[in-house]
């Protein structure tokens, strides 16, 4: 089964548009999560209630991803993304602007549901566009997300530094990002599922059931990767300060270093996949990430700990984009493009599963045992990726030497 050719200029425009969409989402999500303390203070959310607020977002995002799997059987993924991204931006503004805790909870619920639809549809388009290109470009989209996250975190820092209200911080940003999202949405490459060469919603290919056991190894890899990521996001500062004895100011550095190395790793990851294949890149990333956790667990001081978090960024950054790409490719080869979208939506749920498990797991182990020992648990889980690494290669789409078979001419 082959994908129909799309003009090279259209593919390039679609690639830029989708990268901008990833960038917008990275910025918006960072603006939310980095200002959680300010949101808590604004609405008087107690420390006991805050975890429920925070857990509700990924739970509802998972529900949004499940809903998107059903929705894209009738509506193109590009249309879902064009609708969901402005809603996510406006929900962010509402979180910082409404007048009561109940209204803020409703805004966060809308944010969670729409971000699940957005994450799923973005990655559906990324997998589809990579298939049209015939070579690895998925890591570049996630690099744009990382860059957006860095920009959003920087804006959040500026808002905190200048003591801006949440409404004043979010308002101008959303006023720029919503029109940008609407404009770039017109350039998405979203091929018609009713094309007879692709198969359509009513075709045998699209109607064939997608067995969950086919995706289970990749789902586990996704969950393990996000357990590792959430460990860094939620515990790096506390670990450096409480365990390794750093200053409060220095404790803020590891996550920033992690974000920078994530961006760098993703920026150069696609050429690595083209040269060595996805399996080799994922195995290398897994070993590097596990080494990072080992360094963090054994670090004698703060600077050694930061070196470990640097390795973590370089290692973990390649796993998630390649997991989406592998799931989409595998489902496409077995059942066609409709199944590819279903696979991405289902896989996306395990993003939130890992996020929900990671932070409480490390916290509970740290309190009951030790935080050094707790770092070895996500290390062991990430290392499980080596067991499933062969799932990143699709036999139907590869040459005997393990490199991916190009499907279209090089379009730049």
From TrEMBL:
Which keywords does UniProt give here?
Membrane, Transmembrane, Transmembrane helix
Q: Where in the cell is it found?
A: Cell membrane
Q: What is its main location?
A: membrane
Q: Where is the Major facilitator superfamily (MFS) profile domain?
A: 215-412
* Pfam families listed in its UniProt record: MFS_1
Gene3D superfamilies per record: MFS general substrate transporter like domains
Bilayer topology reads: Multi-pass membrane protein
Enumerate the transmembrane spans. Answer: 16-36, 48-68, 104-125, 137-160, 166-189, 210-228, 280-303, 309-332, 344-363, 369-389
User: InterPro entries attached here?
Assistant: MFS, MFS_dom, MFS_trans_sf, MFS_Transporter
PROSITE patterns per UniProt = MFS
- PANTHER family from the entry? BYPASS OF STOP CODON PROTEIN 6, INNER MEMBRANE PROTEIN YBJJ
Name of the protein described by the UniProt record: MFS transporter
């Amino acid at each position: 089964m082959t994908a129909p050719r799309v003009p090279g200029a259209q593919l390039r425009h679609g690639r830029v548009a989708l990268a901008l969409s990833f960038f917008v989402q990275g910025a918006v999500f960072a603006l939310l999560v980095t200002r959680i303390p300010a949101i808590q203070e604004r609405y008087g959310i107690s420390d006991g209630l805050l975890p429920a607020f925070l857990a509700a977002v990924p739970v509802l995002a998972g529900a949004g991803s499940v809903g998107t799997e059903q929705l894209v059987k009738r509506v193109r993924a590009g249309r879902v993304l064009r609708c969901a991204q402005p809603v996510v931006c406006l929900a962010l503004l509402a979180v910082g602007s409404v007048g009561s805790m109940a209204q803020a909870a409703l805004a966060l619920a809308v944010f969670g549901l729409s971000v699940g639809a957005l994450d799923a549809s973005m990655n559906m388009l990324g997998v589809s566009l990579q298939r049209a290109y015939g070579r690895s470009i998925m890591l570049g989209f996630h690099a744009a997300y990382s860059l957006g996250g860095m920009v959003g975190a920087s804006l959040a820092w500026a808002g905190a530094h200048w003591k801006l209200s949440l409404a004043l911080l979010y308002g101008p940003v959303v006023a720029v990002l919503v029109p940008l999202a609407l404009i770039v949405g017109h350039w998405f490459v979203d091929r018609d599922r009713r094309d007879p060469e692709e198969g359509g919603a009513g075709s045998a290919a699209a109607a064939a059931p997608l067995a969950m056991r086919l995706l289970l190894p990749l789902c586990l890899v996704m969950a393990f990767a996000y357990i590792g990521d959430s460990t860094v996001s939620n515990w790096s500062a506390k670990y450096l300060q409480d365990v390794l004895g750093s200053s409060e100011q220095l404790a803020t550095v590891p996550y920033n270093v992690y974000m920078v190395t994530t961006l760098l790793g993703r920026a150069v990851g696609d050429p690595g996949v083209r040269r060595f294949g996805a399996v080799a890149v994922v195995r290398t990333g897994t070993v590097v990430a596990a080494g990072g956790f080992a360094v963090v667990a054994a670090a004698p001081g703060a600077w050694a700990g930061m070196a470990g978090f640097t390795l973590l960024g370089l290692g973990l950054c390649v796993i998630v984009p390649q997991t989406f790409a592998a799931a989409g490719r595998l489902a496409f080869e077995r059942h066609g493009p409709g199944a590819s979208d279903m696979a991405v939506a289902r896989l996306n749920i395990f993003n939130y599963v890992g996020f929900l498990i990671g932070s409480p797991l490390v916290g509970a182990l740290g309190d009951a045992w030790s935080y050094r020992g707790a770092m070895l648990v996500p290390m062991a889980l990430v290392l499980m990726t080596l067991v499933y690494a062969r799932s990143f290669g699709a036999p139907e789409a590869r040459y005997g030497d393990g490199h991916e078979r190009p499907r279209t001419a090089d379009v730049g």
